[in-house]
User: Which sequence fits this backbone?
């Protein structure tokens, strides 16, 4: 699943992963993982990502300041330090990039409103179109093949590059800027010019299943996601089971992930994490629904904050997990504002599930591993759990 074309502002691999966030369900996927809650007097909140090495934040800030004193780019100097450090997911964003990133976390993005997946033939195929968005108004439909973007062939290109082209990253693309999409539907091939717009992300969708049961699909953890999940659980028919679909969810705000887990828990531990050696913990809010049967559907695209939710529900015995092993993105990053206004996100630690499982580089193995027809198998498991009392 390439995801919605929303938040992916990738400039190379690290940028692509870092901004994957909220929309890997959302071709805009980048990989924005999550913000951990903080108090009013605490420093900028860390984000949860996958990485193996760390970099000294003072060294990064010093390199930026020295470069600026010489009339050079502080952001570029900082990026060189991060690149040399081996911090795989460390990244440096200029002020405008980071502003767009934060808007995405607030639940909006600049784009054309389409999601795509990689078809069996390796070509990019439109999987969903946001209702009322530019792509929808242009008549683009699910199933259409996406062949070129602004004349550049995209067959075989990495998802991060496809997303960057859609969003116009590196070109200063803004609301109202245009992009030419080369499309194919059956034997018909045509070019469609669409204008990017500021769109609200659709990260929580709900549909009824037989059972009775409901499927709650969470594409990313942006602002308000946890509350929407809680409302969906409360609105489900009495005794109905819940299929929580976290496939392709690349992360988001950790505070929203905790709220999501809280919808199914009555307090208790959600995860532990360390920031430069200091141990901390995240706890669920009391009052969640602990009676409904729950199945969590996951895959290799389930990352970061989505793995935090998966681990909490699995370890706490609140959900049966079905699907494929998750991605394994479990490091903590802290944003650091540099003298020129750019922002460096640097790895400072890792988080663990309630049972102490270190997710980073390992992922979470589901209770029932399936290679095909995962959704069907998950529904079968859910029906076998009975109904809540």
Assistant:
């Amino acid at each position: 699943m390439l995801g919605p074309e929303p938040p992916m502002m990738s400039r190379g691999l690290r940028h692509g992963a870092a901004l994957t966030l909220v929309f890997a369900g959302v071709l805009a996927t980048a990989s924005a993982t999550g913000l951990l809650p903080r108090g009013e007097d605490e420093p900028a909140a860390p984000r949860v990502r996958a990485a193996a090495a760390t970099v000294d934040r003072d060294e990064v800030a010093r390199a930026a300041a020295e470069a600026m004193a010489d009339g050079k780019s502080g952001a570029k100097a900082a990026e060189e330090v991060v690149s040399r450090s081996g911090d795989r997911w460390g990244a440096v964003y200029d002020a405008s990039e980071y502003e767009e990133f934060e808007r995405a976390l607030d639940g909006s993005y600049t784009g054309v409103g389409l999601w795509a997946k990689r078809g069996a033939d390796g070509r990019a195929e439109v999987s969903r179109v946001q209702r009322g968005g530019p792509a929808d108004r242009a008549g683009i439909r699910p199933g259409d093949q996406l062949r070129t973007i602004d004349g550049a062939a995209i067959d075989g290109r990495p998802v991060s590059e496809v997303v960057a082209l859609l969003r116009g990253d590196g070109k200063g693309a803004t609301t109202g800027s245009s992009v030419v999409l080369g499309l194919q539907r059956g034997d018909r091939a045509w070019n469609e010019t669409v204008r990017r717009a500021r769109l609200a992300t659709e990260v929580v969708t709900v549909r009824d299943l037989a059972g009775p049961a409901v499927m709650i699909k969470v594409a990313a953890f942006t602002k308000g996601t946890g509350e929407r999940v809680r409302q969906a659980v409360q609105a489900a028919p009495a005794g109905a089971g819940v299929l929580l679909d976290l496939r392709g969810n690349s992360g988001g705000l950790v505070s929203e992930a905790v709220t999501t887990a809280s919808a199914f828990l009555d307090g208790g531990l959600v995860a532990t994490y360390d920031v430069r050696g200091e141990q901390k913990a995240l706890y669920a809010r009391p009052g969640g629904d602990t009676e409904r049967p729950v199945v969590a559907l996951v895959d290799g695209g389930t990352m970061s904050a989505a793995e935090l939710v998966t681990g909490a529900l699995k370890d706490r015995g609140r959900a049966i997990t079905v699907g494929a092993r998750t991605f394994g993105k479990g490091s903590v990053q802290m944003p650091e504002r540099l003298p020129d206004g750019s922002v460096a996100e640097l790895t400072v630690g890792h988080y663990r599930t309630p049972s102490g499982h270190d997710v980073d580089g390992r992922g979470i193995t589901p209770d029932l591993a399936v290679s095909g027809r995962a959704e069907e198998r998950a529904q079968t498991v859910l029906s076998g759990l009975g109904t809540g009392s």
